[in-house]
Sequence to fold (250 residues):
Amino acid sequence: MDASTTEIEIAILPDVDAVALATANIVAASSLAAGDEFSIALAGGETPRRLYEMLATEPFLSGIAWDTWNVWWGDERCVPPTDEMNNYALAAESLLSKVPIPAERVHRIRGEVGSQAAAVAYENELRDHFGGGNVPEFDLILLGVGDDGHTASLFPGTQALQETRQFVVPSVAPWPPYDRLTLSLPVINAARRVVFIVVGREKAHALRMVIASDREDAQQPPAALVRPANGVVQFVVDEAAAVLLTGAPA
Ligand code: 6PG
Fold:
């Protein structure tokens, strides 16, 4: 896979609302382009909240064909779905409870059973849906970036980064909730489109490392490994997160 062939687009916007609106438009366009079946993996963390809230309002609420969606997650923490640290909980509160996606098309990761068992179950659900041994090809994967350059639950220096066969792997975070599971890089890099949403000055150093990184750099941050060979990577970021992209010293 040659990273140099991946198309990378960067949009720098004034603030989180503008980032949310730009990303909501990308989601709506991707959904329309996908036709009758749209497979999306949602991002976790706090940044996507404004995006999810915006998707649940007009013009997106009536403009999106919600019944064509299959909703997945890029990763999950091993806490109950009612826990405020749970990625499903955020999406359920801000989006899924407000839009008419059929329940059977919401593929919640059951992290509460523990990372190993949840990874096997989620992998089986992906294989059932996308067809046996084929690497799942998502129409759209939404991702965040941590200030250490992690994405999904792929943390620097962890074994999960090395996975080349499984679609879903258990992971350990350096901070609570420690026990997690995540899509592996082969799945993320099979996506037709990956959109990173990055907001805040605290992300500026990581964002510069991720965008500037060369695949040969052994120390590169996990988010820099997201380079779908046949897909598009878009960074939709605010001005605060982009402050170091002008080449200024970190
Ligand atoms: C998670 C996410 C993770 C997140 C980043 C950024 O489960 O935590 O998958 O990769 O996107 O940590 O998180 P914030 O949006 O909260 O800064």
Remarks:
- The radius of gyration is 17 Å.
- The CA atoms of residues 149 and 221 lie 5 Å apart.
- The chain has a mean pLDDT of 94.
